[in-house]
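cron nightly-structures :: item 1 of 1
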Amino acid sequence: MVFLLLGVHVMRRWGSKATRRGLTALLVVGFAFACVMASGSAAEDINALEKILPADTMLYVSFKNPGEQVAFHESAIYKIAQEPEMKAFLANVEDELRGLHARHAAEVPVDIGLIEEALGDEISFAFTGLRQADESSPPQPGIIISTVFQRAPEDAEQALLAGLRAASGGAVGDAQPAFDHQGVSVKSVGTPDVTFYYTFLGKRLIAASAEADLRAMLDLAQAAGRSLAEDAMFKKTMSKMGGSDAMVRLYVNAQLLTNLMRVSMPPQQSGVLDTLGLYNIQALGLASRFADGGIRDSFYIYAPGERTGILPQAGNPVDLSMLSCVPDNAEMVSLTRLDIEQLYGTVMRAIAQAAPEEQGRIAGAIAAAEEQVGFKIQEDLLASLGTQILIFQAPRETVFMVEVKDRAKLDSCIESLVAFGAGKVEKRELEYEGTTIRHVNITGLPLPLTPSYTYYRNFLVVGLYPQTLKSFVARVKAKSPSITDSEDFQRVSGQYLKGCDAISYSNVAGKLTDCYDLVVILAQMLHGVSEVSIRPELMPHGSAIEPHMFGLGSGTLNDAEGILTESFSPVGSAGGLLAALGSIRSAYGLYTQNLAAIGIMGGMMMPALVHARGGAQRAACLANLRNISLGIAMYETDYNDQWPETLQDVFQYMPAPQVFVCPNDPQPMIIPDSLKHRERFPEGGLKCSYHYVGRLSAPVEPMTIILYEKSGNHEDGRTVAFGDLHAERLDEDTFQAYMQESLRLVKEADWDGYSDERKAEIEAFYAQRQ
């Protein structure tokens, strides 16, 4: 909800009128979706769309409201929403969004009740391929939409048509009778360019862009023909991901889709897909469901038979006993199979297919590199490695492990690399608890790293420092508790501890709580926004959220028919992304908690800070011009590829007026006011430290200066922006040379297209007589 409300602030500050209307509509739809999730389903039991779709449907996706499912009520998301403070906050948000909708009802005529009904049980979409009304008509995409309404069909129809007409500004006309089929009357509606056919089966709306699709669905409703739900490939694919209780289900008939793509695909691209083995895929499935207190997301690749390219062969699970070397406090662990040698060969063949003219050059470059290092990349290095890779991160240990098939060959490759770097690379050895740890000292690196490696069982173990491997060796020899002893690991990844081709775990519980704290911070940003007056102080504290959080686990199961990958966390696959956002919150907390310490250190380091001040001001000035350049690009997008006439026109895209002023400029210029900007610049104009060339009539060469700061702000040069809208710092001599060259480029482009007055302005700009 907070993210939705934050969108109000963004659209109000930055968006055009059309953008504001669109975002307001999305906010209202999101609000209706949240209300439906909270209230549950109330629709009657009506067959899902898949039961009346043609069996050769290319793509099918459905959303089913989980509101009445026991698993949903046991989920972390639902329990957080039921926290008393959170309920009070959400009630406040609901009131504000209702008010927002009321204020924008004229611009965005959205019927919230109708949206709640559409999302209340199940809403589905399908793509049936390209359809032709007749031989003379161009192919059009076959799109099908279906949902269930609680109100009477005639009332739902009138509400839908009224909303479409209002939202399109009258472009959508009245519904017209189209045809009768299977005793059902079908109507059509649309614009002069787009027509949809629709009807109701009970309270279920069915709308299709092709007449043939709707006729076929009406036949299937009478059990005449084979539906998608009866198709063997569809049933096999979707059954791999559980029953029909999923909140989101997606099915793609990959065979039909690739056949459609081949019609317009160049032979080279088709050859690349064939080399990668993607034509082996017959279908794809995806499902997301509430389960075990969280969300389980499943992705299935149906590819029966022998696989080629990047698709792994079946029946080759990872050695799960390797998890015993991962500590129980690991923050992240991933054990997977990847045939690096096969992948390398596949990539090289794909490059040869995609760019045969470049194959010789690439092969020559690889051969030259191999001659320099003294070994063959594929035949020696990659061939010495196995297919299992284990990575884990724990306090004081970040370790990369790869299976080794030929240790002697791998050692030879490492020795060759060390010899190649003679003078800059030195390899040393140390004995630690009966284990040989080798480390490589490299001079000239910007970071003080000492890559180190040893062997454990049939794996090469790599760390950034010898101390990392000392910790690894000591812990393994002590037989310390492993990650499999962790309760959180067992909860989210334990079910994959048998016959899987990949398993991973991330201890993201704390990061997800941090992400919630970040939401609180974003909610505070809405203070002072006149459009929205929510009360973020009502939100519960992070410790109320923390008990509902747990880790993120995933596993891949690979058999003769296909590859199933599942992930599980409080928020499903989004757990990884939200945990990363939580890291931003951690950084923010570190910043705020150390302000006092920074102040004390600043006083102690005042001489150095004074010296550094000039550099900071130059950096801020460079950031200003980058922001202004971005504003010019945004203006260009909004105004038919034209540049602004003055920098005042860019003001609407800037976060603050200070962007136009160099922090080292005591007397910025005043760009004279114009009527359309008068309310923004009460001091008579825009304070600015930068000269702008203005709108040019011809395309600008990339290295043409279009913006530069006035002289005297910095002692060692100027900040400028170029025609490709990137900014740089230039010393004064280089700046003057670029200015002369820029004037020449502008004159070559379209000098005769300017008036005499405009020519004088441009020459004055590049001669710095402004």
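cron nightly-structures :: done
The chain has 24 helices and 26 strands.
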